[in-house]
Amino acid sequence: MRIDTTELRKGLSETGRFVLSHHVPAEFYRCYSPVVFGRRVHICARCAGVYPGIGAGVLATLGGPEVAPATVVFLVALLPVPSLVDWSVTTFSSRRGYNPVRTVTGFLLGCGYGLAIAHLLFESMVGLLGIGVGYAILAGILLYYSW
After folding, report:
1. CB atoms within 10 A of CB 129
2. What is the pLDDT of residue 52?
């Protein structure tokens, strides 16, 4: 059986630019845009903080001091708030915002994700799913109104 990779290559060429940034060209101001090997790449400023934040949250859980479950719940609920506020302000107003703010708030968001994932997987804190569902519903509502 021979697999035709034509469609796969075509799809990757059309979507490859979204690997580091999910923004369309009109929103590239929300990205860092360094030149790498002679090509300009766009890296989402918030995601540049989210992914290291996830790692930090997981590492803090695995290698950090023991934290009371109530503190974990508080942090998981609170850490995403600055990112949500920053995104809402720049989406629903004429303010463009600042990439360093996006990165810092993204890092806090990522820390919340990392703490939640690690405590869910390693400590079986299933109640953290409720916080995630709550944020997912809120984000869905805000995204609906942003279009």
Report:
1. 11
2. 98
27 touches 84 (CB < 8 A): no
Task: Pick 6 or 77 by higher pLDDT.
Answer: 77
Please write the tens of the pLDDT for every residue from 48-86: 999 999 999 999 999 989 899 999 999 999 999 999 999
Q: First CA to last CA across the chain, in angstroms?
A: 45
101 by Cβ neighbours in 10 Å (0-12 / 13-18 / 19+) ranks as middle
What integer pLDDT is reported at residue 9 of this predicted model? 84
Evaluate whether 30 touches 44 at the Cβ level (below 8 Å): yes
**Residues pairing with 32 in the sheet:** 43
41/55 Cα distance (integer angstroms): 23
Cα angle for residues 126, 72, 115 (degrees, 5° grid): 75
Using alpha carbons, select from 114, 53, 110, 106 the residue that is nearest to residue 83.
106
